[in-house]
Amino acid sequence: ADEAMYENKRRIKSGVPGGTEEEEALAAGLWGAAERGELRVHYQPVVELPTGEINGMEALVRWEHPERGTIPPGVFIPIAEKTGAIEEIGAWVLAEACAQVAQWRAGGRRLHLGVNASPRQLTGGFADRVIRTLAETGFPATELIIEVTESVQVENPAVVAELHLLHGHGVRIALDDFGTGYSTLRYLTQLPIDILKIDQSFVAVLNGTANGAMVTDTVLRLGRMMNLTTIAEGVESAEQATELVELGCRSAQGYHFARPMPAAELTALLYPAEVS
Ligand code: C2E
Ligand code: CA
Ligand code: CA
Ligand code: CA
After folding, report:
1. Pairwise CA distance, residues 100 & 94, whole Å
2. Measuring from each residue's beta carbon to the nearest atom of ligand 1, which residues come in under 6 Å?
3. Membrane as a keyword (predicted)?
4. How many A from CA of 10 to the centre of ligand 1?
């Protein structure tokens, strides 16, 4: 009983239910990480197929921990989601990325921007905050893509309402990791979805056979039928890119084209003549 009480106190203190000591340490450090300048946004180009021309990018956050070095989002985002720190982190990523891509667009390129949103961010005033950030950064609503996963609560009317508000304002909504969750088709009818992002696990099994292409082909057909844009994720080889073109996919991202990179590196890719 003492043990249980101690455990309970520990949880309340750290805010990570069932968190390990390691998680607690990270959880504590995550509060204020944006304000202290420890977060970075990396940008992964999204290319048009088959030309390979960059027509947008996805913002992916990294944490430069003062003692531990770079920590990937797969490690700290789930912790930030549990503690609630994701709200301030998400707001910072959105503002930073909108300002950066607005600057690239001012150089004359038409570019869209994908920003990931955790389910926990999607309640109470999310749409208002996004719309305010667009106004503050001068980034056009129609070039912003909010990427949500199938873990968003479609049964929560408040969440559904936030996404409809954003969509009504012109912001596009993408279903990320499409096909890996559950009740996929229900999401398509209840949420204002514009874009399906084909999960990298389905791209990874493309091998020139009908069997390997089964899910990717199905998602692409579904997209065409519903008049949705489809973006293939995790394209790592020329063979996969070629097969995606054959299957009718027009948009992709992956290491084969470019890894996520700091803004300065992408500036050099977008505007090569201006870097000497
Ligand atoms: P995601 O949204 O599905 O992002 C795609 C992930 O795949 C990224 O990992 C990216 O670096 C990686 N990737 C891109 N191309 C390839 C490829 O060709 N092969 C392979 N194997 N991987 C590739 P990353 O940057 O580590 O992000 C992991 C996840 O963390 C993201 O998955 C997203 O769910 C989450 N995340 C990242 N930034 C944010 C953020 O600002 N807010 C929220 N809420 N979540 C974020
Ligand atoms: Ca994403
Ligand atoms: Ca994804
Ligand atoms: Ca993912």
Report:
1. 10
2. 44, 60-61, 72-74, 77, 90, 93, 116-118, 147, 176-177, 200, 234-236, 253-255, 260
3. yes
4. 31
Q: How far is the CA of 5 from the centre of ligand 3 (A)?
A: 39
CA nearest to 44, candidates 56, 31, 26, 28: 56
Residue 241 is inside which H or E element, if any? Answer: helix 238-246
Give the closest residue to 101 by CA, choosing from 113, 117, 115, 90: 113
pLDDT tens figures, 123-180: 889 999 999 999 999 999 999 999 998 887 888 888 999 999 999 999 999 999 998 8
Protein residue with its CA nearest to atom 23 in ligand 1: 234
Q: Tokens in use for 63? A: 């944490």
CA-nearest residue for atom 27, ligand 1, is 73
What gap in Å lies between CA 188 and CA 185, rounded to an integer? 5
Looking only at the bridges linking them, the beta strands covering 229-232 and 112-116 are unpaired
**CA-closest candidate to residue 41, choices 196, 256, 264, 253:** 264
Instruction: Please give the full DSSP string across 23-59, using - where no structure is assigned.
Output: HHHHHHHHTTTTTTT-EEEEEEEEEETTT--EEEEEE
pLDDT of 69: 95
State the closest ligand 1 atom to the C-alpha of 235, by its place in the atom list counted from 1.
Answer: 18
End-to-end CA distance of the chain: 67
